[in-house]
Amino acid sequence: MESEIAEFYRDRSVFVTGGTGFFGKILIEKLLRSCPGLKNIYVLIRTKAGQDAKNRLQDLLSARAFDNVRQNHPEFFKKVIAVSGDISRHELGISPQDLQMMSKNVSIVFHSAATVRFDEPLKNAVELNVKGVKRMLAVCKKLENLEVLVHVSTAYVNSTRSELNETIYRPLCDVDKLISTLDWLDDQTSNAVTKSILHGSPNTYTFSKSLGETVLNNEAGEVDFKIVIIRPSIVTASWKEPVPGWVDTINGPTGLFAGSAAGIFRTMYCHTQMTVDMIPGEFPVNLMVASAWDALNHNSSRQPINPTVFLASTGQNPVTWAQCEKIIYPMMFEYPFSRAVWPPGGSFKSNYLHHRLDQALYHFAPAYMLDGIIRLCGKKPFMVRLHKKAAKAMECVQFYTIREWRSRSDNTNSLIERMSDTDRAIFNFDSRTIDWNDYLCTYYLGVRKFILKDELHTLPAAKSHMRRMLLVQFSFRLAVAVLVARTLLRRSETARTAWQMCVSTAAKYFVSLTSKLF
Questions:
Q1: 3-state secondary structure 105-140
Q2: Virtual CA dihedral for 395, 451, 44, 202, nearest 10 degrees?
Q3: Residue 288 and residue 268: Cα distance in Å, rounded?
Q4: CA proximity to 164, closest of 312, 319, 327
Q5: Would you say 278 and 314 are in contact if contact means Cβ atoms under 8 Å apart?
Q6: What are phi and psi for residue 504, nearest 5 degrees?
Q7: How many CB atoms neighbour CB 432 within 10 A?
Q8: Could you read off the pLDDT of 62-80 as tens digits, one per residue?
């Protein structure tokens, strides 16, 4: 059967913001590969580090996510056109010539450009995630043939509630008043009053994303095009497409897996029996592509008063932190990191004091020791700085690791039902189909390959390195035990007897370990 969605995109042109990010790359690749009749993809790209939009587009298309297209249909890359601009500038910084070109051709806009940092200063978050939406709407109103605007938000815009759903609630504050207030506040004052402005939101990211939705909701009944909002939960590595396990950012669980495989992370504060609502990267992207088709083919021709909201969540097929640990931990020994500084170890902690104690003992104490050795070697220390940065990143996500939410995806489930079997296979976003064991194994291998840059051919050397580290670890622990035992032996006959038993047991274990390792 022919794909209705692919046919819908035939001879259409789309405009994409945020195309240089992880999410945007998957979207562009998906459109090229699964909608071959698509006419053009205009991608907003800002000048960065001396590179103009065209050069950055070539870097974007060289990413591993495009391996399939590069091998099978390299001519499709001609459809991708760089548009120089910046969401922090008036009319997105797009030149009049480019704006006129898009005005005649673009019928669908995918807006995913945003700052996703949880600790972003409030003024910056509002500048990009709220005022950026206003600028996007101003541009959209100038696109003569625009039919649908698909905006990427987050499932956690209402994280102060116990349920993640597809409802737009009353705004947390007056958007225009907030913008005008922040415009005259200096950065220091803005940072000082941020907590009181957030109205209970856990961070500036979810707060600003919520206000961005408010901007769209206020405009939905006044524009000539339909507005769709996609709310993904925690977006993680791809499962099957564009490349199994592909990921190019260390946000969220990715950084945790990478740090653990490297032997750096030994503890994280979370409630292990609670769910972690992670979703493979291609699922919300497929939902985006399908939602534009649905907005024009199955919704009422009457312009809706409010945007249609779709939740991309795994609430119907949950996985807990404990399950993740059980699946991922053995993978770190079966497929070790060839440049790990210490064998993987540690665990999730449900007790905050236990977590902080382990953090001091296993993160910072070794970091200070290693930095001391590095200084003696005449080099610049970095381990303490690295652990402080990692600790700050983990603190930013603790709000999500010790809580869980119920989720309702009625609109998303209804869209799945309206799709043909062919389209459900090509544009799969049904989280109920995820095999967590398969996905998490694929995820870890993706982290090893794309984040830690360890290809499979390094596996023999990595396993040899792991055996040496395990032996060093065992020797270190034995040395500590000997020092403690010698202190006790001087004071007690019972201790000497116990010591002899321990030595005998340790000798047997050492022989067993070395026989397995070598």
A1: HEEEEEECCCCCCCCCCHHHHHHHHCHHHHHHHHHH
A2: -10
A3: 33
A4: 312
A5: yes
A6: -60, -45
A7: 9
A8: 999 999 999 999 999 999 9
Residue that has been written with the tokens 């919520």 in this structure: 210
CA nearest neighbour of 56 among 77, 76, 84, 28:
84
- What's the CA gap between 138 and 146, in Å, rounded? 12
Query: Cα 367 vs. chain centroid, distance in angstroms?
Result: 27
CA–CA separation, 132 vs 87, rounded Å?
5
For residue 348, give the 3-state DSSP assignment: strand
Q: Is the pLDDT of residue 279 over 70?
A: yes
Q: For 454-483, give the secondary structure using H, E and C.
A: CCHHHHHHHHHHHHHHHHHHHHHHHHHHHH
- Residue 251 has a CB neighbour count (10 Å cut-off) of 17
In order, the DSSP letters of 473-515 are HHHHHHHHHHHHHHHHHTT-HHHHHHHHHHHHHHHHHHHHHHH
For 177-197, letters b (16+ CB in 10 Å) and e give ebbeebeeeeeeebeeebeeb
Q: What tens digit of pLDDT does each residue of 282-314 get?
A: 999 999 999 999 998 876 555 667 899 999 999
- 67, 167, 250, 260, 445 from 246: Cα distances, Å: 11, 31, 12, 18, 9
pLDDT of 149-183, one tens digit each? 999 999 999 988 999 999 999 888 899 999 999 99
Helix, strand or coil for residue 453? coil
pLDDT at 297: 85
CA atoms of 193 and 182, how far apart (whole Å): 10
Q: Where are the domains of the chain?
A: 4-244+279-317+405-419, 245-278+318-404+420-454, 456-517
Per residue in 460-483, pLDDT (tens digit) is 999 999 998 888 878 877 777 777
Give the full edge-to-edge strand order of the sheet including 308-312. 80-84, 40-45, 13-17, 106-111, 148-152, 226-232, 308-312
Compute the distance between CA of residue 503 and CA of residue 405 in angstroms, rounded to an integer: 50
Which is nearest to 17 in space by CA: 105, 106, 83, 107? 83
When the pLDDT of each residue in the chain is averaged and rounded to a whole number, the result is: 90
**4-244+279-317+405-419: CATH architecture:** 3-Layer(aba) Sandwich (3.40)
Q: 84-140 pLDDT, tens per residue? A: 999 999 999 999 999 999 999 999 999 999 999 998 999 999 999 999 999 999 999
Distances (CA, A) of 230 to 112, 167, 286: 10, 12, 11
Rg over CA atoms, the chain: 26
What pLDDT, on the 0 to 100 scale, is given for residue 138?
95
- Kindly report, residue by residue over 224-244, the tens digit of the pLDDT: 999 999 999 999 999 999 999
**Tokens representing residue 39 in the block:** 């006419």
